[in-house]
Design a protein that fits this description.
Radius of gyration: 28 Å
Number of strands: 37
Mean pLDDT: 89
CATH architecture of the largest domain: 3-Layer(aba) Sandwich
Distance between the termini: 59 Å
Low-confidence stretches: 522-528, 698-708
CATH superfamily of the largest domain: Alkaline Phosphatase, subunit A
Helix content: 10-25%
Structural class: alpha+beta
CATH topology of the largest domain: Alkaline Phosphatase, subunit A
């Protein structure tokens, strides 16, 4: 097993000045604290994901999970013994407008065994190192510099004689529909190399992603869970701080972290800003190393060039390499020679009738396939192909059919794009797992025709590679036993997929789509559109029967309720009035946006939009409760309540604090949330609102429970709470 030094910082000994915020130059922003090293808040600076732009031509940003040295500092790592290969990369940064310099000394116990003299090194440059060392008990790293900080990127001690495991290559080609693959029967030759790979692979013939655009789809694959369930949502690009607090929970593990903990070197080569935390739209998944290549057109070849170089440099270690090709993707710009080749080698009747955008879309798939063929050939040359898992899929499909265009269909999407509809053409993707040769020889299943979701990727591959993971934490099905022994098929009766302000469930019989309030701009309740398609009669999803087949609609709604993601609920209690008859009128606006409002026979909705509900309540002899589920776990709201045309106040949160008739409330989660109905809530003679925090669990930690009890005792002493 290797020793991952950035993961050992929590038990290391540090000597030196605790740096101020100037450890990084003030204009250096491509960094974020390491999210997985379990350091205390005041020590998080020691582990940072640091990114240098190393190529302007390709807009290549090279990011490494790093150990950070302040000026004249020492790290000591205890309880290490043996012969290792010490490898990584280093870079230096200085606040001063000079070329940086310093000395890195390496000790085994108190004996110096290596030294790097760094003179006038250019800032934002990574320099590789790799050499064997023998450690008796303790590794000591000392950085000596008066003007610079040292960034030690992905420092690893590898056992020289460690046993080789299977490499795992996870390839995601953007926006590829399954029906564009030759092995799926497509007549135009856009995928000869993937078709060849399919003959050596387990082919999932009916695979579906769990979101219709890149970030939530990719996150769901790597975490084997839904993006919204992880706190990231499914709507916008921005990743706010409250989302990060939920997402970086130590209870949530992804395949990258599992493989790191099992001695794998993990890397991503991609054109995908959603896997970089510092961008504001992405998150840190814990890779050792990331190459982000942002130059359109040039990126595909450069990604494969970097992958070839990576596979050569890392041929003596176990690695997990993720490639994300942004081809095909709008704007479709394939090389001219590719289009000419497709035209020459396609049935003329097939190719000529295609829309020009479709031809370019297919041209980009052919270009991606060509480059992947180059990579596969190289892996064979260096004898890595047969010993590797190679997984190929896509993050979503692409809407091409004219009858699904929003111009022609009120519930449609954007033709030649994605992320706006939940039709199969946006969700049905290729999914191949090429097994290592020795596993291929015993696998009994090569084709799986049933519907399968990409939540299955992580658990299936890890189980095939015999790597342990916590099965209780992941939602995806594990197909390994079925693949190897043709037993225990984990049938997926229902597949849930997310879209922007929408979600869908798919069975073999039907597709049901529910759009959240606010998907359409008008505020009438009728804008809450449902879609229902009967696959037994309408496999191409042309006819929405939501208003015609009420029985099937009820069944679909019930399935959705069973499979939908847990959400925070605003719950408002309306007591029976002492002066009968009475009626409440109210309106509430929620920063977290509205997922849905649960039905109640005593409550009538007047208006429903993305963040606003107006309603009337006619309490009966039973208590009336308005329950609103929110898209995002945010707690800011404004509430107005009238009873018999008179504005009234209300109680709030777990302690039932009295609020006047002011509408703006910016509540602290500890005061506002309660995981169960607050004491006195159900019998209260006042209107009472709280948030149950069932999704975000903001009050579940011991510290917060203790704080809540202390706050309660203080408020009681102030006279705000009475038994």
């Amino acid at each position: 097993m290797s020793v991952d030094l950035s993961r050992e910082l929590n038990s290391s000994e540090f000597t030196g000045e605790i740096p101020d915020e100037k450890i990084f130059p003030p204009d250096f922003w491509k960094k974020n604290p390491g999210r997985y090293s379990n350091l205390n808040q005041g020590e998080k600076w020691k582990n940072s994901q640091v990114t240098f732009k190393t190529s302007e031509e390709f807009l290549l940003n090279h990011s490494l999970d790093s150990v950070v040295f302040s000026k004249n500092s020492i790290y000591k790592f205890q309880n290490l013994h043996g012969d290792f290969l010490f490898s990584g990369k280093f870079g230096i940064l200085s606040n001063e407008n000079i070329r940086s310099s310093g000395i890195l000394k390496i000790y085994s116990d108190d004996k110096i065994i290596g030294e790097f003299q760094i003179d006038s090194m250019k800032s934002e440059t990574w320099k590789e190192f790799s050499f064997p060392i023998k450690i008796l008990n303790r590794l000591q790293l000392e950085w000596i510099s008066e003007n610079s900080s040292l960034i030690l990127g992905a420092p690893i001690l590898s056992k020289i004689a460690s046993k080789k495991k299977y490499n795992i290559l996870f390839i995601v080609i953007d926006a590829v529909r399954k029906d564009a693959m030759g092995y799926s029967g497509f007549p135009i030759p856009v995928s000869p190399n993937l078709d060849k790979l399919s003959k050596e692979s387990v082919v999932f013939e009916n695979a579906f992603v769990n979101a219709n655009w890149t970030k939530p789809s990719m996150i769901s694959m790597l975490y084997s869970d839904y993006s919204s369930a992880l706190g990231l949502g499914n709507i916008g690009f921005q990743v706010e701080n409250y989302r990060k607090k939920i997402f970086y929970s130590p209870n949530k593990k992804n395949i990258v972290e599992v493989l790191r903990n099992n001695g794998y070197y993990t890397a991503a080569i991609m054109n995908n800003v959603f896997f970089l935390d510092y961008t504001g739209v992405g998150v840190d998944l814990g890779f050792h190393e990331i190459f982000q290549i942002g130059k359109e057109v040039k990126d595909t070849k450069k990604i494969i060039d970097e992958a070839i170089e990576f596979s050569e440099k890392n041929k003596n270690r176990n690695y997990f390499l993720h490639l994300n090709l942004n081809t095909p993707h709008t704007p479709y710009l394939p090389p001219k020679r590719i289009l000419e080749n497709l035209k020459e080698n396609s049935p003329s009747s097939q190719f000529s009738k295609l829309h020009e955008y479709e031809k370019k879309y297919l041209g980009e798939i052919r270009y991606a396939d060509e480059e992947l063929g180059r990579l596969f050939s190289y892996l064979k040359q260096i004898h890595q192909f047969d010993d590797s898992f190679i997984v190929v899929t896509s993050d979503h499909g692409e809407l091409l059919n004219e009858y699904h265009d929003s111009k022609n269909h009120s519930n449609g999407g954007v033709r030649f794009g994605h992320g706006e509809s939940l039709f199969d053409e946006e969700l049905n993707v290729p999914y191949l797992i090429k097994l290592p040769k020795d596993i291929q020889s015993i696998a009994k299943v090569k084709q799986i025709p049933d519907q399968v979701s990409l939540l299955s990727f992580a658990p299936t591959v890890l189980s095939l590679a015999k790597i342990h993971y916590d099965k209780e934490k992941w939602k995806g099905k594990d197909y390994s036993e079925f693949i190897l022994y043709e037993k225990d098929f984990p049938k997926e009766e229902v597949i849930l997929s997310e879209g922007r302000l929408s979600e869908a469930i798919r069975t073999n019989q039907f597709k049901y789509v529910r759009r959240y309030p606010g998907y359409y701009s008008n505020k009438k309740i009728s804008s809450h559109i449902e879609q229902l398609y009967d696959f037994t009669k309408d496999p191409n999803e042309k006819t929405n029967i939501a208003e015609e087949n009420i029985e099937l609609l009820k069944k679909a709604r019930s399935f959705m309720d069973s499979f939908s993601i847990k959400r925070n609920q605003y719950r408002i209690h309306f007591p029976v009035c002492s002066d009968s008859p009475c009626q409440y009128f109210g309106e509430i606006s929620l920063k977290g946006s509205i997922y849905r409002v649960l039905e109640n026979p005593n409550i009538q909705l007047q208006e429903l939009s993305k963040k606003h509900v107006s309603f009337s309540v006619q309490p009966s002899t039973n208590i009336s409760e308005l329950i609103i589920e929110t898209v995002n776990p945010e707690f800011e709201f404004s509430l107005n309540i009238n009873r018999n045309n008179q504005k009234i106040g209300y109680r709030i949160g777990r302690f039932g604090l009295s609020k006047g008739i002011d509408t703006e409330q910016k509540e602290h989660s500890i005061l506002f949330t309660s995981e169960r109905p607050p004491y006195g809530y159900e019998s209260s003679k006042d209107v009472w609102i709280y948030n149950d925090s069932q999704f975000s669990k903001v009050n579940s930690s011991k510290e917060e429970v203790g704080m809540g009890e202390e706050v309660r005792s203080i408020l009681k002493s102030w006279g705000y709470i009475h038994e």
